[in-house]
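A further point concerns the way the authors explain their paired sequence and structure data. For illustration, here is how one protein appears when written out as sequence plus structure tokens:
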Amino acid sequence: MAEALPTKGIGLMKNRHSITTAAAALILLCGSALGTSQARADSLPLAGPPDGFAVGAFVPESSKAKQGGSTQFTGELHYGLPTIPFFGGNLVSTLGYEGGNHNGHSTIVPLTIGAYFGSGEAGQPIPYIGGGVGAYYIDQSGAGTKIRGGGYVAAGYKFSYLFAEARYQFLQDGNGFMFDVGTHF
């Protein structure tokens, strides 16, 4: 059982799960703040501002991940990397959050890099596919915290600056489907 921490002026921050969730949210907010405070031309791709974000739902299949609920929140920041020579695809690095609190808690914070490929005419919806790998920080009831390697496959449509995407995540104790909508700027 998580021991209560002193909470003078903190309110809901009473256990490790609340602190982990708050830390993940703070990471996403700080990354977003970097995007508004740095000039894009002066920075390296991974050190600079995010160039997109997405929010959606995570539907876990793993029993440990389902402790957070049958449908959980997901959010992520996207950092575009250089185009893949000879293949025409784009590399994207993401920092995300997946989590919920139902019959316990499940928090997953992925840091991934993926390749995306699509084709179409400018001004028209562009279908794309992709996949990636990364490191996943996991904090789940009864399982503690750990970092695991995992990956995903994705398919979606890009509508100008907006996109809709479905993904399947391959991760021990965190397999499941994700459905996101987002924007690139």
Summary: The chain has one domain: 16-184. The radius of gyration is 17 Å. Residues 16-184 form a domain with the Porin fold (CATH 2.40.160.20). Helices lie at 16-37.
